[in-house]
Amino acid sequence: TQLLEQSPQFLSIQEGENLTVYCNSSSVFSSLQWYRQEPGEGPVLLVTVVTGGEVKKLKRLTFQFGDARKDSSLHITAAQPGDTGLYLCAGVMVGAQKLVFGQGTRLTINP
Amino acid sequence: EAQVTQNPRYLITVTGKKLTVTCSQNMNHEYMSWYRQDPGLGLRQIYYSMNVEVTDKGDVPEGYKVSRKEKRNFPLILESPSPNQTSLYFCASSPNQVGTQYFGPGTRLTVL
Question: Quick one: which of B65, B110, B62 has its CA closest to B88?
């Protein structure tokens, strides 16, 4: 059983479309990180959110931490082929000193 | 350039033949860890190290060993590899256990 469930697991859309991927849990997290992994490379941190309700923007990517700190979303506006990759969320559970990863969302943006 | 390096990047071996995957970081991070990545399962932690000579089991430690004799190096040892250890392996370093993880490029291991 995954502590962090990501959905969808696979997503293939056309260039220019918008999309949202989700990272959900029944547990409360003190912080949540989002990584992107491109083929042949290791994951790279995109953003960390720490406050319930927090919204962070990175160009066309918008990250939100749920008010109850149990979930997060990543919204991409006008997706580009360069956004293709595996998106991973990772969270630190309240009271724990351990980072747990979701299973990832594999995103493909078709030209 | 700040980086985590792993070697080899690709390895095909046979059951039972001992192997070592090296990992080195140049960021003076105290915390290092090994993960394996399998389809549908995400990243699962194998072992981690809080500092030199301090290592501990992660979520899937069976069949693996590690050592941390120097701060920069954290090799992963498979004493007797089996086919179920075929996977993509990542080494990561971080200033602490819950901070930003800096990943190496990965080692794709196939055990026949």
Answer: B110
- Tell me how far apart the terminal alpha carbons of chain B are, to the nearest angstrom: 36
* Cβ distance of A9 and B40 shorter than 8 Å: yes
Question: Residue A47 phi/psi, 5° resolution?
Answer: -160, 155
pLDDT single digits (tens) B24-52: 999 999 999 999 999 888 899 999 999 99
Pairs across A and B, CB distance < 8 A: 47
Sequence-distant (≥ 6) Cβ neighbours of residue B77 within 8 angstroms: B18, B19, B20, B64, B65, B66, B67
Above pLDDT 70, what percent of chain A?
99
Distance from CA of A77 to the nearest CA of B (A): 25
Closest partner CB to A104 (pick from B42, B101, B103): B42
d(Cα B90, Cα A99) in Å, to the nearest integer? 15
B105 upstream amide cis, omega within 30 of 0: no
User: What's the rounded Cα separation, in Å, for the pair A86 and A41?
Assistant: 11
